Here is the input.
Amino acid sequence: MGKTVYLECASGISGDMVVGALLDLGANEAGLRRALDSLGVDGFEIAVTRKLVSGIDACDFDVVLDEGYESHDHDMDYLYGDLDGGEGGRHGHGHGDGHGHEHEHGHEHAHGHEHEHAHHHGHSHEHEHGHSHDHGHRHVHRSPADIAALIDAADLLPRAKRIAHQIFDIVAEAEAAAHGLPIEQVHFHEVGAVDSIVDVVSVAYCLDDLDVTDGCVSALAEGHGRVRCAHGVLTVPVPAVTNIVASGGLVLERRDVEEELVTPTGAAIAAAVRTMDEPPARYRVTGVGIGSGKRAYDPPSTVRAMLIEEAGEEVAARQEQGLGTPDLWKLETELDDCTGEALGNVTQLLYDAGALEVHYLPVFMKKGRPGYQIEVLCAEPRIPALERVIFENTTTIGIRRCPEWRTALPREAREVQTPLGTLRAKAVTLPGGALRMYPEHDSVAHLAARASVSYQEALRTALVALGADRGILS
Here is the structure.
């Protein structure tokens, strides 16, 4: 059973703020750095530091671009100053306030290279780059297909790749709708693409590392006014954000500030994380992380991420009866006109939509007809999405649902070093306190592919490493 994250966005949301919050929540920074090193993207470094925001300790995640990239440090005078043609220069440094968000826009490749620049304001970096850079300006575009290929080639587990694809798909679809273009004609300027690729891949890695499968998102605080981009002046919230909010069922909460608090990347992350409308009426908090933005003035930019679990009265009553936590539901239906290929397809779609377990059984139905019974185990917030997958991809006209209670052993994700690389494993504590380790299938398959060995050889290597390093195996 995965975990539920609650994102509180009372001062907006951007990619760097969410990454900082998830790292503060306990995501593995060393693992994240390895994942980012595997991307086919150069010209950047990441800095993870601590800072006080309104007296509260927060994690600051920063993407530091090489000098060879065109400057992305547009100041607030340009963005929110004299929008009717005053002296707010394109790369001015009027008052030096930090803005806090990237702001990337896709655009048609044939638009004469009118680039939509990412806006990261007020960065102050206190470390040196230990390698040489090409100081010429880079003008490279990446399409959604280019970015998808980078994600596929990265050293990420399958679930992290699915999350990254989902977030970028949401951004690309919103930009395509905003510009009235087919999605394949949307291109991201290099600066915006690098920032966004790093932020999105970082969020995807952290969510996977924390075993987050469900999420709720508060209303997104948003400002008002206008921002200037290469295509002209846009109203806040910008078109891409409004498209994502509309399609993702998100809620905006207006703040009386003339600035952009929600970026397209931030909104896409919120839409991808959200699987429930609101947190339970009563819940326990099992972890807290705070991620800082870059704004140096009010309102201070932070996102708070909390790991939560339901704590309703009905839960306590069932626990007192020894029934455990009712965190699983079973969906089932019968089909007598579905091919094996169709069943295999819907099985994968159900897993992609968040099912915990899917299987189908041969059964005999009315009038002796042979058929199949599909059974799906899931968390309650996933029920609507999974039922939709079943209805849209099979011929059933009805689905039964029933709650399931289980006795679950304590478990946690761990990383173990093997001769083939880093292995992801699940550590399970038995009632007597003994530890049992299980290698994750996806991680074993990944090690096998990377080392060009068979799956069985990678599995034997993993089992030896677990037995020698961590304890009991079964």
